[in-house]
Specification:
The chain is an alpha/beta fold and about 250 residues long. It is built from twelve helices and five strands. It starts with a helix and ends with a helix.
Length: about 250
Amino acid sequence: MIEELNKKLEILDLEHIKEILPDYIHRTSKENITLTESLKYLLSEEIKYKDDRAAEGIIKAANFPFRKTLEDYDFKFQPSVNENQIRELSNLSFIENNENVVFVGNPGVGKTHLAVALAIEAAKHRKSVYFITCHNLMLKLNKAQKENRLDKQLQHLAQYKLLIIDEIGYLPVDHQGSNLFFQLIAKRYMTKSTIVTTNMPFSRWGEVFSDNTLASAVLDRLLHYSHIIRITGNSYRIKDKITECDTRTNKYNE
């Protein structure tokens, strides 16, 4: 009987149910569990298994620099960050509404951490995501243009439900790169969601993109439907060093 059942589970590609079924049958033989309850449990476990496996595949392909979640973020260290606002964004309605998220702040305050955390949450819900720094994006687009495959590359980057462009403003972008960047943002405008992180105030994006007109056009499309999150405070990366230094100073003063 169990062998025949396993074959049918294989045909239906219900591999996780096949894996947990023996232990579950043993447990149900000792408990008063109805057929409906059993089906509900087994199917729920199979769905969760498939969702977790799909999310893992998306995360591996997303090119994240690290894996960090909202639970890893120290909101107490950065009181300028509205935790409720970030938690609300993690519900992913901004993706359903094709809205953007812009993190603005000095280096090290946790912009990339929060961006990746939101993207991981999106991956858990089987939404396609991709992470790239602004510098690497420029390299990718310039190379595609030289190889006469720019349209294909733009289409590829435009298909992701969520695209993260990290570190805008850390390095200047020449006029050609600015034009390519604008084409990508325009292609995603009101059709997909983009998260960007930047250390530059919007008033100085003309310096970043070497062209005030192009910078204004990018900002117009990026900010039209967006959530702007400004982060002030100390570097998140060195907070442990600061704590360690303060502890040693206090011991010395004692």
